[in-house]
Design the sequence.
């Protein structure tokens, strides 16, 4: 095993310990130099050597990503807890995280803040399942008195299904479906200051189109379609509020669309009309 792998696994253990020691659902990030010190990566003065930690965390991220496929659910990017102490990305992950968040470099500062806050919330919610991750990597479990509770079962419910992911990626790859141009910026899981996320966002200098998707799995849970209708209303209101702030660069023209792999159940059609929600049905990923 290479030194980078050793340091990556040591970093993961330290970050899980950091998560388990948080209080009241809130978690503080940790600086690159602080994590470096904790794993014994020191400079000649005996201080934490933060330079090069991005490579270590990248290796760690790939260790977790390789486990994703086996378990069918994405593991939160715990490496996003490690942030810059100074500079234009102060208190945020460095640009290297684009390997896992491709849209990160093109986001504004506040969009990056929201994206990071949402991920930190996921990391905390993942709770005791972090020990399942450590076990699969052959690492010792971490114990803590205030270890957060999670749903029962190995990785429980709530993860993104493959059907949902496939539909989301298909929409992003075919902007013309929702009236966006091929030259528009695209974002997956676009972060909002409320810590909500929109599945897909297309943005140009003059317009923004947000898309919430519901795969065929929602056919087994009809109430999820009602939820989707209200989600679009919520996202539209949030984006309209963000457009009034100079921090976000949101254009004045905003449209939100609910994209369905099958059809909207008949009992929700009148509601969609009353709410003014645009629904695009029978979108089949190719």
Sequence:
């Amino acid at each position: 095993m290479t030194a980078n792998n050793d340091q990556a696994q040591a970093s993961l253990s330290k970050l899980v310990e950091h998560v388990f020691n948080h209080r009241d659902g809130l978690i503080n990030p940790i600086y690159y130099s602080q994590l470096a010190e904790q794993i014994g990566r020191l400079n000649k003065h005996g201080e934490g050597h933060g330079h090069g930690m991005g490579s270590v965390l990248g290796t760690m991220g790939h260790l977790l990503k390789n486990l994703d496929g086996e378990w069918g659910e994405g593991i939160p990017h715990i490496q996003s807890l490690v942030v810059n102490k100074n500079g234009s990305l102060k208190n945020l992950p460095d640009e290297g995280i684009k390997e896992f968040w491709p849209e990160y470099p093109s986001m504004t500062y506040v969009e990056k803040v929201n994206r990071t806050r949402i991920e930190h919330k996921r990391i905390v919610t993942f709770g005791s399942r972090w020990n399942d991750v450590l076990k699969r990597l052959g690492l010792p479990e971490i114990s803590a008195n205030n270890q957060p509770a999670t749903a029962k079962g190995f990785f429980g419910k709530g993860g993104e299904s493959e059907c949902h992911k496939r539909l989301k990626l298909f929409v992003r790859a075919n902007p013309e479906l929702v009236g966006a141009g091929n030259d528009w910026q695209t974002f997956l899981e676009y972060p909002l200051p409320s810590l909500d996320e929109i599945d897909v966002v297309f943005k140009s200098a003059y317009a923004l189109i947000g898309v919430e998707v519901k795969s065929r799995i929602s056919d087994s849970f009809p109430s999820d379609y009602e939820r989707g209708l209200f989600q679009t209303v919520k996202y539209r209101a949030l984006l309209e509020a963000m457009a009034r702030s100079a921090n976000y660069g949101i254009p004045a023209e905003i449209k939100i669309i609910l994209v369905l792999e099958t059809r909207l159940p008949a009992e929700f059609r009148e509601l969609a009309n009353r709410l003014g929600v645009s629904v695009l049905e029978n979108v089949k990923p190719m």
User: Anything to note?
Assistant: Residues 223-242 form the longest helix (20 residues). Strands lie at 30-31, 82-83, 185-191, 197-203, 207-214, 253-260, 278-280. The first strand starts at residue 30 and ends at 31.
